[in-house]
């Protein structure tokens, strides 16, 4: 280490000459050489560096960069480097063009059937039977006016036109969805910055701007954005499992293994590296390009296979079902059931409706055909004449079209659209509320949250640490003392100790705005200590300039096990001095001396320590302060050099300099937010690393604890003692005794946090399974964030690893944003229920009307084109109108629904059936008695090409207006009376309702033949509107009937009940695997996990783009609209075997797997690698579960 410092000094002389050299001449090392070097591992790489380049400084000089100053930052130089070595960017796959999306939308089976029917109808309409034979062919066109016969083509053309509309709307939806997704992705990419040194300045630049030759600073929690070689490192440990499958952390040092690879995580320590490969040339990039090239060929193969398979299936079905029926059944099941799966796996009754509609349409067609055949050939005894064939076929085509329209209306295709729109809209709006959603389903899970385990620092508090009290030279100062009050030698220890023993990345910068607070960069606690020096009118930067980071002899960086940080300095006389800082109770136990009032060190006995704890530390903690102890130790020059790796012998026998109390004030808006959570039935628990007194004080200030309540506040070790049995194993029953009352867990390790979250989720004490949200910012919070139903990472204070493991990133680190997420989550749920209530009413009515009408009058009262218009209103437009209702505070006044709450409650069922009854009565009255009431000609039993009748137009108009007014009723699903409340807050809703009304007027008044409408008088319009508004009055009547009286009403759309789960799945949890076997599996799993992660990432974008129904071979296949979500099913149990993630000393066996990171225990007990692998790949294909990827490079998938 010492000679390293000299090396860097010797090097700085070359600095200036380098800058000139930078502009001309090539680099002394080629891209190919660098690539070859980065593919070597540990000792091979070291040998290669020594043989070819001397050392890492040799590589720096060939890359024309300075290890201390970095690149000059000259734009021309950066450009040249990017030209030679490439950019730090992996090009994504090209998005689908609008035309491709149109083509995909055209694959919809219903549309294909309609197109065929329309074309046949078009072709036949041009056929005119020979003059004079008309009478022979039955009543084809009785009462046809001259020239009216020529307009037979209009219906076919109108159907085709409406198909075009539907296709364009669908394609546009897909296109905008993909655009949104890419926007989100690029936003995540832009937010990722990395620290580099340019022109001697430490700056943060976007990951994409990093180039070969940059000197990058790496620290705990980083995800490396490029390959590089270590120049200087302090205790650096890397998790390379994502690339190599090696689960143990790899120690990086100059003399053993200096290569750092992109996509790996820094788990401990810090250091600097020179970047040697970026983008497609980095290790991650190489794998991406391999997969990218292979991906397209694979896709083509897959598509061919899929086509063949589908053809076979279709053939089999065709034999025993009406052609379009079979195809539509598949469509209905997949469309409706699959799309809803992210919404709590609730198989909505949409499938049943689809099946019922299918049955109805088939029966309708059969009845129509039979009736016509019997009536024409049996009753009227007409012969079948050859020249009449086209006319008969025209009848059959008309019947077929009626059948298809019944089906179109019956299948709730708008459901997937409503879910998509609702989630996409929420996600977009949540961005404004500082929630960056990475997994779409998290948004809706959040609505059911019953518990939130929150960090204290930064989430509940402002994370603006300041030292407010201190115990120095045996005095307890309640305010920061004047520098004159402190003996000079104590002050110098304090200044040097704080300046050197805080990470050099922590600094205090001048405020951005005039009059603002100074900016804290880096670790907030360290910034508070540096702020103390500024308050004492001393400058830490002078000390750092004198002792640069390279001159530090050894650094023991802070981690969750040590809970302290120490730095060793080597003095010129050969002696060593170590400075240490950390949690006061931990450091004080290691202190044997203390600096007294006159600045001399005096003996510090356990009795003295207890006094300090009682008189200084506990009073500070009870006021909510975090206490930090500062200490030092000298190693004299004459003694043999200590064994630096043996940390326990080094950091002991210390001399205490001072104890400081650091305050982190509670955010002013937090107590109110916590009150809202508690009112909404959500328990807030605080999990913190601080001591119990501080934690209790802050929890009381926040309102998590209320005076006089018997809630538990436990320390980590106490918690562990209570939940473990004699053998030290965690028992669920013991956790169940604790968690319902636990409100504060202090001095907790990340393992404790994970144990608590898992314990609450797995608990069966309450009748509803708990849904837990967790906040985290550190790398060590990864397992808990993964395990939780919804993981929130901090956008400002969070490390890359935490963000990677999370579902939602809080861009302002504020607890109130979590409350907003709850509101949005509940709103998504309600929006979809509203849409269903509206959609199902229309479905029931339209199907029954079309079916009965067709069977009684041989003609559907609602024509094909009209049905398509109704379908458009109730699908696309209604899903837009109802799915974009903004959330209101009243959502937080009810308890969470719970996981198995049906999507269609009994109140909704009452509304659906009640309104359907009213609408059917109105429609049938108009249909069978309307002509007498309005004194017009009856439209029933009209011949084939008869002009549109006023009678049927009134039926159609009233039907649509009833739907419009019912859309306003559908805004409320909990039986509220005031359905207009807040209606003007939703501009989209108002626009759509008014727009639909205007279009309806145009269709009726000017639609004419294509829409089978004839103009209506003002009086007829007023009657239609009056009957439509009747639904609002009828709605008031329905809400008067108490739901509790209607026992016969069923709920629909439950989640999976316990007894429905097959026994094998339950057995999986029970199955235990012994330790050796677990070890054996771990390597294989990690290897497959690494590969699969990358494959997943590449699939993510494809999955998101792929059209809604593509490739779903059977309804159970685990798929979902957003194919890139973590499937809720996977989230519930931790599948065996456990793979330790964070190798803390004690966490080895407790840190269970990341969510679904391992395959299910395979039937093959030998656990061949191949076996596990196959399992994984199947899982992967079944559901491309993944997080929305950040830049492909910078977020190598950590969630399988």
TrEMBL record:
Residues 1140-1200 are annotated as: Disordered. InterPro entries: ATP_Ca_trans_C (IPR022141), ATPase_P-typ_cation-transptr_C (IPR006068), ATPase_P-typ_cation-transptr_N (IPR004014), ATPase_P-typ_cyto_dom_N (IPR023299), ATPase_P-typ_P_site (IPR018303), ATPase_P-typ_TM_dom_sf (IPR023298), ATPase_P-typ_transduc_dom_A_sf (IPR008250), ATPase_P-type_domA (IPR059000). CDD domains: P-type_ATPase_Ca_PMCA-like. It catalyses: Ca(2+)(in) + ATP + H2O = Ca(2+)(out) + ADP + phosphate + H(+). One of its GO terms (molecular function) is ATP binding. Residues 1180-1200 have a biased composition (Polar residues). Keywords: ATP-binding, Calcium, Calcium transport, Calmodulin-binding, Cell membrane, Ion transport, Magnesium, Membrane, Metal-binding, Nucleotide-binding, Phosphoprotein, Translocase, Transmembrane, Transmembrane helix, Transport. Pfam families: ATP_Ca_trans_C, Cation_ATPase, Cation_ATPase_C, Cation_ATPase_N, E1-E2_ATPase, Hydrolase_3. The keyword Membrane applies. Residues 50-126 form the Cation-transporting P-type ATPase N-terminal domain. Catalyzes the hydrolysis of ATP coupled with the transport of calcium from the cytoplasm to the extracellular space thereby maintaining intracellular calcium homeostasis. Plays a role in blood pressure regulation through regulation of intracellular calcium concentration and nitric oxide production leading to regulation of vascular smooth muscle cells vasoconstriction. Positively regulates bone mineralization through absorption of calcium from the intestine. This is Calcium-transporting ATPase. The lineage of its organism: Eukaryota, Metazoa, Chordata, Craniata, Vertebrata.
């Amino acid at each position: 280490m010492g000679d390293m410092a000299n090396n860097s000094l010797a090097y700085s002389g070359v600095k200036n000459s380098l800058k000139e050299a930078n502009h001309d001449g090539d680099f002394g090392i080629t891209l190919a050489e660098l690539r070859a070097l980065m593919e070597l591992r540990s000792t091979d790489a070291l040998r290669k560096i020594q043989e070819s380049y001397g050392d890492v400084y040799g590589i720096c000089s060939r890359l024309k960069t300075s290890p201390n100053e970095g690149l000059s930052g000259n734009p021309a130089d950066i450009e040249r480097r990017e030209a030679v070595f490439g950019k730090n960017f992996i090009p994504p796959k090209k998005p689908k063009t609008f035309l491709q999306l149109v083509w995909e939308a055209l694959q919809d089976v219903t549309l294909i059937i309609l197109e065929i029917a329309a074309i046949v109808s078009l072709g036949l309409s041009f056929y005119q039977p020979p003059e004079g034979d008309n009478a022979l062919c039955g009543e084809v066109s009785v009462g046809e006016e001259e020239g009216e016969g020529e307009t037979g083509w209009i219906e076919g053309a109108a159907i085709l036109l409406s198909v075009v509309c539907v296709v364009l709307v669908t394609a546009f939806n897909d296109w905008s969805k993909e655009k949104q997704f890419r926007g989100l992705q690029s936003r995540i990419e832009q937010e990722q910055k990395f620290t580099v040194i340019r022109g001697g300045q430490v700056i943060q630049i976007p990951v994409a701007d990093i180039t070969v030759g940059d000197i990058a600073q790496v620290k705990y929690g980083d995800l490396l954005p490029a390959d590089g070689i270590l120049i200087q490192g302090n205790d650096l440990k890397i998790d390379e499992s994502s690339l190599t499958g090696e689960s143990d952390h790899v120690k990086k040092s100059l003399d053993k293994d200096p290569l750092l690879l992109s996509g790996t995580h820094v788990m401990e320590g810090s250091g600097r590296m020179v970047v040697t490969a970026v983008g497609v040339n980095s290790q991650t990039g190489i794998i991406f390009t391999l997969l990218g090239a292979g991906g397209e060929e694979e896709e083509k193969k897959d598509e061919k296979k899929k086509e063949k398979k589908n053809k076979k299936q279709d053939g089999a079905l065709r034999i025993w079902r009406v052609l379009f029926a079979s195809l539509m059944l598949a469509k209905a099941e997949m469309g409706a059931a699959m799309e809803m799966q992210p919404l709590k796996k609730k198989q909505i009754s949409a499938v049943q409706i689809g099946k019922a509609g299918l049955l109805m349409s088939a029966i309708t067609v059969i009845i129509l055909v039979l009736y016509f055949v019997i009536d024409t050939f049996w009753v009227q005894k007409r012969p079948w004449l050859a020249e009449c064939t086209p006319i008969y076929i025209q009848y059959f085509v008309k019947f077929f079209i009626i059948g298809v329209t019944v089906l179109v209306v019956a299948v709730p295709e708008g459901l997937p659209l409503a879910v998509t729109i609702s989630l996409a809209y929420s996600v977009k709006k949540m961005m404004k509320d500082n929630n960056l959603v990475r997994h779409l389903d998290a948004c809706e899970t959040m609505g059911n949250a019953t518990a939130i385990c929150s960090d204290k620092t930064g989430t509940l508090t402002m994370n603006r640490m300041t030292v407010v009290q201190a115990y120095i030279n045996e005095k307890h100062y309640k305010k920061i003392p004047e520098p004159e009050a402190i003996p000079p030698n104590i002050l110098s220890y304090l200044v040097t100790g704080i300046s050197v023993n805080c990470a050099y990345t922590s600094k205090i910068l001048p405020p951005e705005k005039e009059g603002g607070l100074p900016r804290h960069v880096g670790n907030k606690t360290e910034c508070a200590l540096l702020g103390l020096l500024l308050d004492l009118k001393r400058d830490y930067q002078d000390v750092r300039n004198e002792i640069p980071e390279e001159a530090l002899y050894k650094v023991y960086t802070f981690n969750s096990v040590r809970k302290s940080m120490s730095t060793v300095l080597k003095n010129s006389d050969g002696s060593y001095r170590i400075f240490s800082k950390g949690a006061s109770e931990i450091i004080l136990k290691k202190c044997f001396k203390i600096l007294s009032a006159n600045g001399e060190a005096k003996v510090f006995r356990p009795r003295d320590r207890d006094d300090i704890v009682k008189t200084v530390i506990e009073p500070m903690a009870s006021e909510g302060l975090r206490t930090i102890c500062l200490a030092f130790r000298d190693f004299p020059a004459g003694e043999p050099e200590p064994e630096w790796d043996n940390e326990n012998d080094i950091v002991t026998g210390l001399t205490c300099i001072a104890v400081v109390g650091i305050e982190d004030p509670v955010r002013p808006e937090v107590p109110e937010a916590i009150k809202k959570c508690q009112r909404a039935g959500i328990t807030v628990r605080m999990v913190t690393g601080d001591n119990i007194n501080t934690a209790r004080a802050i929890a009381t200030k926040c309102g998590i604890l209320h005076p006089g309540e018997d809630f538990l506040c436990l320390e980590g070790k106490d918690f562990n003692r209570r939940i473990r049995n004699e053998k030290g194993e965690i028992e669920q029953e013991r956790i169940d005794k604790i968690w319902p009352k636990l409100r504060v867990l202090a001095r907790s390790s990340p393992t404790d946090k994970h144990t608590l979250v898992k314990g609450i989720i797995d608990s069966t004490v309450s009748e509803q399974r708990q849904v837990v949200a967790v906040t985290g910012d550190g790398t060590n919070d990864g397992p808990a964030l993964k395990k939780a139903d919804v993981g929130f990472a901090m956008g400002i204070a969070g490390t890359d690893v935490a963000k990677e493991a999370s579902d939602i990133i809080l861009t302002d680190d504020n607890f109130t944003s979590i409350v907003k997420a709850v509101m949005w989550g509940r709103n998504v749920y309600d929006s979809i229920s509203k849409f269903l209530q509206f959609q199902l009413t229309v479905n029931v009515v339209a199907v029954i009307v079309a079916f009965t009408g067709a069977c009684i009058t041989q003609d559907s009262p609602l024509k094909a084109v009209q049905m398509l218009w109704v379908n458009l209103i109730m699908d696309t437009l209604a899903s837009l109108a109802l799915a974009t209702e903004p959330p209101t505070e009243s959502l937080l006044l009810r308890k969470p629904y719970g996981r198995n709450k049906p999507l269609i409650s009994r109140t909704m069922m009452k509304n659906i059936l009640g309104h359907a009854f009213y609408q059917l009565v109105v429609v049938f009255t108009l249909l069978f008695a309307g002509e007498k009431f309005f004194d017009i000609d009856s439209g029933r039993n009209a011949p084939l090409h008869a002009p549109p009748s006023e009678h049927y137009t009134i039926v159609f108009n009233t039907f649509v207006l009833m739907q419009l007014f019912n859309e306003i009723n559908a805004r409320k699903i909990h039986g509220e009376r005031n359905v207009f409340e807040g209606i003007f807050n939703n501009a989209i809703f108002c626009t759509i309702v008014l727009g639909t009304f205007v279009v309806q007027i145009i269709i009726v008044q000017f639609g004419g033949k294509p829409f089978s409408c004839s103009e209506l008088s003002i009086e007829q319009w007023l009657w239609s509107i009056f009957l439509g508004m009747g639904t609002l009055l009828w709605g008031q009547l329905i809400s008067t009937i108490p739901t509790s009286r209607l026992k016969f009403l069923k709920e629909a759309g439950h989640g999976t009940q316990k007894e429905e789960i097959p026994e094998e799945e339950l057995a999986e949890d029970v199955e235990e695997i012994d330790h050796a076997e677990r070890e054996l599996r771990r390597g294989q799993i990690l290897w497959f996990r690494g590969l699969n992660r990358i494959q997943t990432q590449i699939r993510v974008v494809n999955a998101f783009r792929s059209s809604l129904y593509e490739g779903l071979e059977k309804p159970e296949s685990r798929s979902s609209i957003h194919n890139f979500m973590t499937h809720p099913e996977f989230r519930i149990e931790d599948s065996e075997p456990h793979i330790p993630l964070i190798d803390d000393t004690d966490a080895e066996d407790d840190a269970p797997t990341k969510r679904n990171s391992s395959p299910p225990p395979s039937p093959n007990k030998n656990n061949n690698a191949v076996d596990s692998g196959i399992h994984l790949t199947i899982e992967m294909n079944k559901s491309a579960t993944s997080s929305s990827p950040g830049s492909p490079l910078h977020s190598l998938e950590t969630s399988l």
